[in-house]
Design brief:
By secondary structure, the chain is mainly alpha-helical. The longest helix is centred in the last third of the chain and has 31 residues. 70% of the residues lie in helices and 0% in strands. The chain folds into two domains: 67 residues, no CATH class; 289 residues, Orthogonal Bundle (Farnesyl Diphosphate Synthase).
């Protein structure tokens, strides 16, 4: 329910290459660029200097011509959209404060959590399409996405402000669009709101024990130790990546199933934890774009520890083998043959896109790969949820 990201993206920031910068850098040489005053050029370089009090080398400094061209053009519509979604390549122009706060919350990273709630509702076997259930589901998705994932993202940005000055200097805190105090106030309010919604959901579902509230506290704690010192799990490649993967899959699933069925069993909980190994692979995909800053600041991401060539095979291995193991359990453990076949078939296009995009160049093609392959992964998660739900319906009806 709570997502910890290095980041799509979360993510470790949100996913997405700098489309606006790439477009700007590929303009024909004959096209005349708008004139920029000497004062505006000085301000940009002064900002870069002030964002790096530790003297860390920034990507903007390494590729100054490309980075400034997008800003001089006033920022494209694509850059503005990326800013609102919290994706890489966002505009660094001064924006309304609400846009900056939304960028901090990275809406693009809410989607897997919202989907996870839907999968958990399906797994309960008790969801029906009534107005009340739809309202419950939407409120649970709001808790998991905008509030608790937003809390995680803002907090992550706050504790990552130094590494962002290297990897993503356009982010709101290192770019100076929002102060550190404002960021802290924002993630505290989001946390309070998310926990409050969790408590309301328990009451609405008639739970004697506030299990969703307890889960929200647990997920929020994992988010904190992922991003904040002294533990800062993200500094350890394995622990950090798995915490991220579990938050994408297991926690929102549990919230949805507890809300509608309150029938989360240990075997299903373990199944979602196993599925989270695929989430670990997704988390490693996000690490490749941050390898430069991670190495400079001593973060032990898997691409830094093992190198790009080894880490890319670890990535695809965890994603593919996990889904095949889940398919085997659905077939043998639950007896849901057709759902198992569907999960296996959905692995095939993922393998195709791994060899087309990811294996040749995981740094350059990480976003292309995720955009092409992840829809099949999340459909597989839904098939698993439907299989569990169908199994629970048969159990309730005495058919097993």
């Amino acid at each position: 329910m709570v997502v910890v990201t290095r980041g799509v993206a979360g993510q470790r920031k949100g996913v997405g290459p700098s489309a606006s910068l790439a477009a700007a850098s590929s303009k024909p040489k004959s096209q005349k660029r708008p004139a920029v005053s000497l004062r505006s050029r000085w301000c940009r370089h002064a900002r870069r200097a002030s964002l790096n009090p530790l003297g860390l080398r920034t990507r903007a400094a390494q590729d100054d011509e490309q980075a400034t061209s997008g800003v001089e053009d006033g920022g494209s519509d694509g850059g503005n959209i990326k800013q609102l979604l919290g994706m890489k390549g966002a505009s660094v122009e001064k924006e309304d404060k609400w846009k900056v706060r939304l960028q901090l919350m990275k809406p693009v990273t809410w989607v897997p959590l919202i989907w996870g709630v839907a999968c958990g509702a399906a797994a309960s076997g008790m969801y029906t399409w009534t107005p009340e259930n739809v309202a419950k589901a939407l409120l649970c998705m709001t808790m998991s996405g905008p509030f608790l994932t937003g809390y995680t993202q803002v907090m992550n940005d706050y504790y990552d402000r130094e590494i962002d000055a290297i990897n993503e200097p356009y982010r709101p805190i290192p770019s100076g669009l929002i102060s550190e105090t404002e960021a802290v106030a924002q993630f505290v309010l989001l946390l309070a709101g998310g926990l409050g919604i969790a408590y309301v959901l328990d009451g609405w579902a008639g739970h004697e024990t506030p299990v969703i509230f307890y889960e929200a506290i647990f997920g929020s704690f994992i988010s904190y130790i992922y991003s904040a010192p002294p533990l800062k799990l993200k500094q350890s490649g394995w622990y950090g990546s798995y915490a991220l993967g579990a938050s994408y899959i297991a926690l929102p699933w549990w919230a949805g199933q507890l809300l509608f069925g309150n029938n989360l069993t240990w075997d299903v909980a373990l199944l979602t934890v196993l599925y989270s190994l695929a989430g670990l692979g997704i988390a490693i995909v996000n690490d490749f774009k941050s390898i430069e800053g991670d190495r400079e600041l001593g973060l032990k991401s898997l691409p830094v520890e093992f190198g790009i060539d080894v880490a890319k095979w670890i990535t695809v291995g965890t994603i593919d083998l996990t889904q095949l193991a889940v398919a085997a359990y659905v077939y043998q453990g639950l007896g849901e043959r057709w759902y198992s076949i569907a999960i296996q078939l959905l692995v095939i296009p993922q393998v195709f896109f791994q060899f087309k995009y990811f294996i040749p160049d995981p740094v350059k093609n990480d976003v292309k790969y995720q955009g092409a392959a992840q829809p099949f992964l999340v459909l597989g998660i839904l098939m698993t949820g439907l299989a569990v739900g169908h199994h629970n319906q048969l159990l309730a009806a005495g058919g097993l």
